[in-house]
Amino acid sequence: MNEKDCMMLQYLEEEQSLTKAAERLYITQPALTYRIQQLEKELGVPIIVKYAKGTRLTPEGKYLVTYAKQTLLAMNKMKDYITSMRGEIKGVLRLGVASNFGLYKLPPLLKKFKDLYPDVQFNVTSALSSEILDLLHQEEVHLGVIRGEYHWPDARYHLHDEPIYLISKDPLDLERLPELPHIHFGEPKVRAMSHSQFPFSETIQAWWHERYQAPPTITMRVDAYETCKAMVKQGLGYSIVPGVFVTPQDELHTVDLVRLSGEPIRRHTWMLYRETSLELAIVDRFVQFMKAEHAAI
Questions:
Q1: What domains appear along the chain, each with residue ranges and CATH number?
Q2: Element (H, E) at 222
Q3: Contact, 289 vs 159, CB < 8 A?
Q4: Which of 38, 8, 3 is nearest to 20 (CA)?
Q5: Among residues 13, 114, 123, 176, which one has the fewest Cβ atoms lying within 10 Å of its Cβ?
Q6: What is the pLDDT of residues 7-63, one digit of tens each?
Q7: Quick check: 84 and 32 in contact, CB under 8 A?
Q8: Is Cell inner membrane a UniProt keyword of this protein (predicted)?
Q9: What are phi and psi of 196, to 5 degrees?
Q10: 167 in the Ramachandran plot: left (φ > 0), alpha (ψ -120 to 50) or beta?
C-alpha cells in the first residue's frame, strides 16, 4: 500500500460513497473501483461492500483504515522532521481553526507569515472547535485555534476574547425579553463532543436562567450568526451573538451579556499545540508569530 492507497481508505471511511471518495482523490469512480479491486486481490480480502445508498467497509477494511491512518501520520511526521533538521522555515504547516476565526481573522495572518517565510505552505482545516480538538488529539494538525472552553492537556495560549451581545434593531425592555421574538442560533449537529466542557449554548442558557423563569419565544432557528444578524436588521426579533459578528456599521442596538454577579460574559479564543511540536522549526516560528501578533492587539 502506498500513500495514495492510505488516503483512499480514509476517504472511503469518511464518505461511505465511491463517488465522493473519488472526487476527493481527483480520480474517476471507475479508476477508484479498479484500485480497490486490485488491493483486494493483493491482500486476498474484501475491503468494501456495496449497498443501495453507498458503501461500507468490511471488518478487514476497517482494520486497513486504522493502519492507513497510522501510516499517514508516521509519513507526515517523517516529512516534518526531515524538513526541520536544517532549521529552515519551510514545508507544510497543518492548521485546524474554528470556522469563525478562519473567516474573520486567519487570512491576513497567513498572508503576513507567508510574506516573512515564502517557502511555507499551509494545509488548513476549518471546522467546529470540537472537531479541531479531535484533529489535535489525533495529531492530524500541528496547531489548532478554537473558540470557547475545552480541555486540552498540553500547551495553550490565549489569543483574545470578545463580548457576547444581545442584538436588536431598537432598544428593548429586557424585563419583557421572554415575550419577544427570539432568533435562535442552533449549533450544527455533529458527533458527540467528547472533549468539550462548556459549549457556547450552555453559557447562554445559564445567563438566561439566572434572569427569567419562562423560556425564550423562539420564532426562528438558523445555523449561521450572519443570518441571525440579517433577521435582526429587519426588525424580526432579537438574537444573541459573539461580538466578532457585530460592527458599528451594522447600526444595531447591543447589550453586553453580564452575569448577576457583575462578571461580563466573554468568549475566548485559544491557540492549542503540543510542546513537542515546537521541535519543528516551522511550528515554533508560527507559534512565536501568533503570540507576537496577538500581544500587540
A1: 1-85 (1.10.10.10), 89-297 (3.40.190.290)
A2: strand 217-222
A3: no
A4: 8
A5: 176
A6: 899 899 989 889 999 998 889 989 999 999 999 999 999 999 988 778 889 999 999
A7: no
A8: no
A9: -85, 150
A10: beta
